[in-house]
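Support request from a user on the community tier.

User writes: "When I paste my structure tokens into the form, the page sometimes reloads and wipes my input. The last time it worked, I copied everything first. Here is what I submitted, just in case something in the input itself triggers the reload:"
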């Protein structure tokens, strides 16, 4: 009789492991999921299975997830195709959280480490309680800032760094004009340029003039009241995150041999040639080493993170509506879990 009971128990355990029952015990999580293209209202707050880290990935328990203009990519058929995104898709590229589990090939991180990361544009996954990241995408979170602040860093800080340092080779004593100085990229660009020893001219609307100064801009231009080309002339480097007319008028303010980087358009080679300047369009790439360097500047208090709004994960629709205005001050962050004590 005992043997029969044991056999029956074994049969039950095996059957449980291989049937749909097993799926129901798969760990689940809350996430924002896109099932169809459309406006922010297609973002749905749902229960989905937790991701499992591959050998070269860490699983991160997300505390906060940063919001960026590019997060709309999964909702737009054109952008989704461009980035290789397939639906259903969890948006979000900026995360800060705690390593829950590590893949077999992970050497840089261990369970319990605090990290921040810029996730791949194809995979996203940041608007969720758990997300996976590679060692190239993640870096140790700066200890001096909260997880909410850390989630506002990766995409925009890497963009500013790759534009000013890697691409335009900004050096001490040079003058840089930063358009959109009060936005996500701009707030980091001003501070990275100042830390580099450059003179900074930055543009924003009237309400954000105080912020430009607070971040260290030497000259703040209110683009609603003045033409930037009347104030900024012969700059060595120009960072454009606005495009269109602003970019068209920017070629003329860069000195001969100077450099213009745009984040939002294809650079116009004919304009570069006309003005005897160089230039590039930039697509930001994950870079763990650069994220670590940025973390050092944060620890040294040379960079502060400006968070204008923190919303719960379930309010992703509201967050994406705000970022789509193109007039966000600093960063918006989705709070996914309480800050660990
Ligand atoms: N290529 C890449 O790899 C890359 C990477 C990151 C971002 N981007 C793109 O770069 C752009 C900026 O990103 P973000 O995260 O900084 O956006 P954001 O946080 O929404 O900031 C936009 C900022 O632009 C300012 N602005 C709007 N119109 C302006 C004008 N005519 N002149 C000067 N400033 C103006 C706004 O300030 P006011 O409210 O004061 O007007 C706002 O602070 C977005 O289009 C984003 O998609 C591209």
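"...and here is what came back when it finally went through:"
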């Amino acid at each position: 009789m005992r043997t029969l009971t044991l056999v029956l128990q074994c049969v039950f355990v095996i059957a449980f492991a291989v049937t749909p029952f097993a799926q129901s015990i798969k760990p689940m999580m809350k996430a924002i999921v896109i099932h169809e293209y459309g406006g922010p209202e297609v973002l749905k707050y749902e229960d989905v299975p937790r991701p499992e880290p591959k050998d070269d990935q860490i699983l991160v328990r997300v505390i906060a997830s940063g919001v960026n203009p590019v997060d709309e990519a999964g909702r737009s058929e054109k952008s989704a195709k461009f980035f290789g995104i397939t639906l259903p898709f969890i948006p979000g590229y900026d995360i800060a959280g705690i390593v829950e589990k590590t893949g077999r090939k992970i050497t840089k991180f261990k369970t319990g480490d605090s990290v921040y990361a810029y996730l791949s544009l194809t995979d996203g996954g940041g608007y969720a309680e758990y997300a996976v990241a590679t060692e190239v995408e993640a870096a140790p979170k700066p200890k001096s800032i909260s997880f909410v602040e850390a989630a506002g860093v990766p995409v925009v800080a890497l963009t500013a760094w790759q534009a000013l340092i890697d691409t335009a080779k900004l050096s001490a004593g040079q003058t840089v004009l930063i358009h959109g100085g009060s936005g996500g990229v701009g707030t980091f660009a001003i501070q990275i340029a100042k830390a580099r020893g450059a003179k900074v001219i930055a543009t924003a609307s009237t309400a954000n003039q105080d912020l430009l100064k607070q971040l260290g801009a030497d000259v703040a231009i209110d683009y609603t009241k003045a033409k930037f080309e009347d104030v900024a002339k012969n700059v060595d480097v120009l960072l454009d995150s606005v495009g269109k007319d602003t970019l068209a008028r920017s070629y003329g303010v860069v000195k001969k041999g100077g450099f213009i980087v745009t984040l939002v358009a294809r650079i116009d080679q004919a304009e570069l040639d006309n003005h005897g300047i160089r230039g590039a369009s930039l697509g930001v790439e994950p870079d763990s080493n650069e994220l670590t360097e940025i973390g050092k500047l944060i620890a040294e208090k040379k960079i502060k993170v400006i968070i204008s709004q923190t919303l719960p994960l379930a309010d992703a629709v509201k967050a994406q509506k705000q970022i789509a205005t193109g007039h966000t001050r600093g960063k918006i962050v989705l709070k996914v879990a309480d800050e660990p004590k």
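Agent notes: The reload is a front-end session timeout and is unrelated to the input. The first helix runs from residue 2 to 18. The CA atoms of residues 99 and 112 lie 5 Å apart. Escalated to web team.
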